[in-house]
Every structure is written in C-alpha cells, then in structure tokens.
UniProtKB/TrEMBL annotation:
The keyword Nucleotide-binding applies. It comes from the Bacteria. CDD domains: ABC_TM1139_LivF_branched. Keywords: Amino-acid transport, ATP-binding, Nucleotide-binding, Transport. GO terms for molecular function: ATP binding. This is ABC transporter ATP-binding protein. InterPro entries: AAA+_ATPase, ABC_transporter-like_ATP-bd, ABC_transporter-like_CS, BCAA_Transport_ATP-bd_LivF, P-loop_NTPase. Residues 2-235 form the ABC transporter domain. Belongs to the ABC transporter superfamily.
C-alpha cells in the first residue's frame, strides 16, 4: 500500500531523514519507534505533504504520492492523526469529528462513521456539544482518532497517540487502536516513543535513529533483540 524509497528531508542545513525506505502492506500494523529527534514525525509530514522531501519517492497504492497536492491526499484514503492531537479547541466535539469527513466520499458515509466512532469512544457521544478545548487530554486524543476515522481511511497514520496521557488512558487508547486494526482490517502506521506498547501491537516494526532506519523486523524479532531491549525497553 505504501512504498517509501530513499526518502530524505532537510531543514535548512540539517538532515531530518536520510535515505529512509519503508514498506507498509495492505492490512498491516506497522510501528515506527525511536528517540526524540529520530525523524519519526518528519516522516509522517512528508507522507501528508506538509514538508517536502529533498530526495526519494513515496508511492501509495502504486501512485506517486509526491505528485498529489497535500490537500488532496486525504481523499485518497490517508488519514493523519497528528502528535499533540491538534483538535479545534473552539469547536464542539461533534464539529471536530465532522471535519474529518470533509472529502466527498467520507461525507457520504458520515452517519455510519459517527456511529462507529461512538461505539469505540462512547464518552464522545456524551460530550458532543462540549468544546473540544475543554476536554481532558485523553478525550482530545479520542476526538483526534475519531476525526481520522471519519475520513473512512484505508491508511490510518497515528503520531504519538500516548503523548502526555496517564498510563491507564494509554492502555485504553492502544486497546482501541488494536480493535480498529483487527475488526476493520485497517492498515495502520504508528509512530510511538513507547516502544514496548508499539512493538507488542504491530506486525512489523522499524527503528529510526538520527534520521535513518537502524533496525527492521517483526514484533518478536525486535522485542527479543538485546540492543533494543537495553536502549528502548529498559530491560
């Protein structure tokens, strides 16, 4: 579904991504882990088009994604749930969710999408008229994920969904992400600093370090790797 080859991104004189290659098959759950500054969020921004690469290619379902303007990429079936959630604080929960169904194909399925979002996150149905900026961090994360699902995506990209949340809330969010993946067979690309949770959930994992792919393997290969255990899992 997603094929990235030799992708490089520079900010001024700094190299954020250095010839990164990643594959995501349809229906896979792929996790990308690594420390701060490794280039994880930059990778997502390049896929979404909010930053331009200095080299390399990105193909989505065989199509040159770099030739597609950023505002048209959601209509291809790509939903990006950004880090820090980035809800619209002065809009209601329901209005935030509906913003995810902006593309015509998603708008046509809005009512069904809303039912599915409320099944996943019942609290959002109770808070539909509440301003999103007044919600807790965990509830805002639910809104952000729901907004992504409202796009009826084929590829759901989640950037640091655990950031700033209490452990119990993180567990619930990861449970819901796994539920989405299994029940809807949705392709998921996850960026996450909490390596243990991300790798336990995924089919395939990549480790980014200083803008490069340092390791790749299935979840058991990575969880059992001694260097990864010491560097990221605290074992």
């Amino acid at each position: 579904m997603l094929r990235i080859r030799e992708l490089s991104v520079h900010y001024g004189g700094l190299c954020a991504l250095d010839k990164v290659s990643i594959d995501v098959e349809a229906g896979q759950f792929v996790a990308i882990v690594g420390p701060n500054g490794a280039g994880k969020t930059t990778l997502f921004k390049a896929i979404s088009g909010t930053v331009g690469p200095s080299g390399g290619t990105i193909e989505y379902k065989g199509r040159d994604l770099l030739a597609v303007p950023p505002h048209q990429r959601p209509a291809l079936g790509i939903a990006h749930v950004p880090e820090h959630r980035q809800v619209f604080p002065s809009m209601t929960v329901l209005e935030n969710l509906q913003m995810g169904a902006y593309a015509p194909a998603a708008a046509a399925q809005w009512k069904r999408s809303l039912e599915l979002i409320y099944e996943l996150f019942p609290i959002l149905a109770e808070r539909g008229t509440q301003l999103a900026g007044t919600l807790s961090g965990g509830q805002q994360q639910m809104v952000a994920i729901g907004r992504g699902l409202a796009n009826v995506p084929e590829l759901l990209m989640l950037d640091e969904p655990s950031m700033g949340l209490a452990p119990a809330v993180v567990d619930m969010i990861f449970d819901r992400i796994q539920q989405i993946h299994k029940e809807r067979e949705l392709t998921i690309l996850l960026v996450e600093q909490r390596a243990a949770e991300a790798l336990e959930s995924c089919d395939l994992g990549y480790v980014l370090e200083t803008g490069r792919v340092a390791m790749v393997g299935d979840n058991q290969q990575l969880l059992n790797d001694k260097r990864l255990q010491q560097s990221y899992l605290g074992l």
